[in-house]
Design goal:
α2 (68-81) links the parallel β3 (49-52) and β4. Strands 2-1-3-4-11-10-9 form a seven-stranded mixed beta sheet, with helices on both faces. 33% of the residues lie in helices and 23% in strands. The chain contains six helices and eleven strands. The termini are close together. By secondary structure, it is of the alpha/beta class.
């Protein structure tokens, strides 16, 4: 049977994009639910995996975005049942928050552009990221970070400043702060929204997009295996 992945999308400008295409290439089917547009969140019993995407809201903005609390409930159910789960950016932060970790604005400011991934020793033995635990870059575009991992979580990658880039939250539950799913087209509206703040900070927004676009083949080679590996776990 074809593995069915429940995908939670938090914002129309944060779609599954490349990650969705790669999972389908890996033989998975996607059921994309958009609670921001009024979709209900289904029972997990019918699914083989859970993918929680990014978004512009904070992981603890439950009062402003009514579905965030229920998504955290799904995360806890998935953790308890062993359902394979992957969180991307906000999704990673929601997992951390749901399981007792802490998410806060990065005191160093926004992380944006191509960053090197600082794999830890634990990554070499991880069932999902071990094949990826070699020097590579990824796209980060975030204001918040996980500042305290939940009890029992394993740090898999961190920046040079010790900021969490990837973690394992359970035997079959992972989160990545970076955005393996994006290309320059997906990033364009994010860049347009941040252009004013970037100018204030001296960040060349268009230069970032050009650099990311020029690295497309590198990024595809670096992060397609994340989707392929996740899909393989479901079989």
């Amino acid at each position: 049977m074809t593995p069915l992945v429940l995908v939670v999308e938090h914002d129309a400008e944060c779609p599954p994009a490349l990650m969705g295409a790669w999972l389908e290439e890996a033989g998975c089917a996607l059921d994309v639910r958009r609670p921001h547009a009024g979709d209900d969140l289904p029972d997990l019993a019918s699914y083989d995996a859970l993918l929680v995407l990014g978004g512009p809201m904070g992981a603890d903005d439950d009062a402003q975005h009514a579905w965030l609390g229920p998504v955290k409930g799904l995360v806890r159910e998935a953790r308890a049942s062993g359902l394979p789960t992957l969180g991307i950016c906000l999704g990673h932060q929601l997992i951390a928050s749901a399981l007792g970790g802490r998410v806060e604005p990065n005191p160093r400011g926004q992380q944006v552009g191509l960053l090197s991934v600082g794999w830890t020793e634990a990554a070499a033995d991880d069932p999902l990221v071990a094949p990826l635990a070699t020097p590579r870059r990824g796209v980060q575009w975030n204001d918040d970070i996980v500042t305290a991992l939940p009890e029992g979580a394993v740090l898999l990658a961190e920046t040079a400043y010790g900021e969490v880039q990837a973690a394992r939250y359970g035997p079959f539950m992972w989160g990545v702060q970076l955005h393996p799913e994006v290309d320059a087209e997906v990033l364009q509206p994010w860049a347009d929204e941040d252009r004013g703040s970037h100018e204030t900070r001296g960040v060349d927004t268009d230069g970032l997009l050009r650099e990311i676009d020029a690295a497309r083949a590198e990024l595809d080679d670096a992060w397609r295996p994340l989707a392929t590996g996740f899909g393989a776990l479901l079989r």
